[in-house]
Structures are given as structure tokens and as C-alpha cells.
Amino acid sequence: MTSRSTASGRTSAILYWAVALATWLFVNAAAALGLLLALFVLMANATWLTFFTEAENLARHFVAASPAARADFARLVSEILVVLFVCLCLSRLAALRHAAAPAALSSSS
């Protein structure tokens, strides 16, 4: 009976850690997207009217660009997003350790 409860405890700890990791990654991804949006808003003088005007201008130029130029722009935005995501993940490692701590404590008991 103890081996079954130990296995159940390990499974619960693994599931808890997986959920904690998934939510931590989701929060970091959402924050990175929010920072990217904030960057575009700030580049438009931090007003919604100017932001949407600039977004329309960017969209018009994006559609008119060659496929190679579109691919370069998409790659640049993706790289910026990845850098933001990695920086956020590195700066929030303590939050992940804190979220995963209860699982580590319960599995060692």
C-alpha cells in the first residue's frame, strides 16, 4: 500500500510541477506579447489614434513589400519576441522555483 501511495504522490508532484511550469511559461509569453504591443504603442507617441494610424501604414507597406522583405520583417519581429521571452523567463526564475517548491516538498515527505 505504501508503494501505491508513493507512486500516487510522485504522480501528483509531477502533475503539479507540469501545471506550474505551463502557467509560468504562459504568463511569460503573454508578458512578452504585451511588451511588444507596448513598444509599438510607444513608437506611435503613446496615443491610440496614432497607434492605429501607424499600424495601418505598417500593414499597407507590409502587404506591398516583396515576399523576401515580408519574411525578413516576420523574422525580426519573431527574434524580438524570443529575446523578450527569454529575458522575462530569466528574470522570473525565482517565481518558477517558488511555484514548484510545494511539489518538491510534498514529494520528499
Explained architecture:
The chain has 109 residues and is an all-alpha fold. 92% of the residues lie in helices and 0% in strands. It has helices spanning 2-43, 48-64, 67-91, 93-108. The model has no long low-confidence stretch (mean pLDDT 85).
Would you summarize the structure shown here?
This protein is mainly alpha-helical and 109 residues long.
Largest sheet: none
Number of helices: 4
Radius of gyration equals 21 Å
Approximate shape: elongated
Structural class call reads: mainly alpha
Give the overall pLDDT as a whole number: 85
State the order of secondary-structure elements, H for helix, E for strand. HHHH
Low-confidence region ranges: none
Relative strand content: under 5%
In total, the number of strands is 0
- Name the helicity range: over 70%
Distance between the termini: 16 Å
Topology summary:
Blueprint lengths: L1 H42 L4 H17 L2 H25 L1 H16 L1
Helix pairs in contact: 1-3, 1-4
Notable features of this structure?
single chain; 109 residues; elongated; mainly alpha
